[in-house]
Amino acid sequence: MTSDENELINLKEFLEKKIGLVREDYFKKNKNVQEMIKSDLDLTDEAFSRLEEMCNPQYLNSDEFQKEKMEIDDLDAEHVSFVDFLKINYARPNRRNQPIEIKFLKNLSRLNELDPEPEDQISTPDIILSVQISQPLNTKLRKVAWSEDFYLLGQNYLTELKDKITCHRNEIKIGEFSEDPNQVVSAPLMKGVIKSGYFFIEETLYNDMRNENNDCSENVKKWAIENKIGVLESKKMEETKFIDLTIKIGFPYLYNHLGNCEHLIIFTGVKLVNPSSDCYIRSKYPILKDKSRGRFTFCWCCNKIYAKWIVCNSKYAVDDPTFLCERCLRNTHYVENENNQENEEGSLRKAFDFKAFHYSQI
Question: Entry's InterPro entries (predicted)?
Answer without folding.
Answer: snRNA-activating_su3
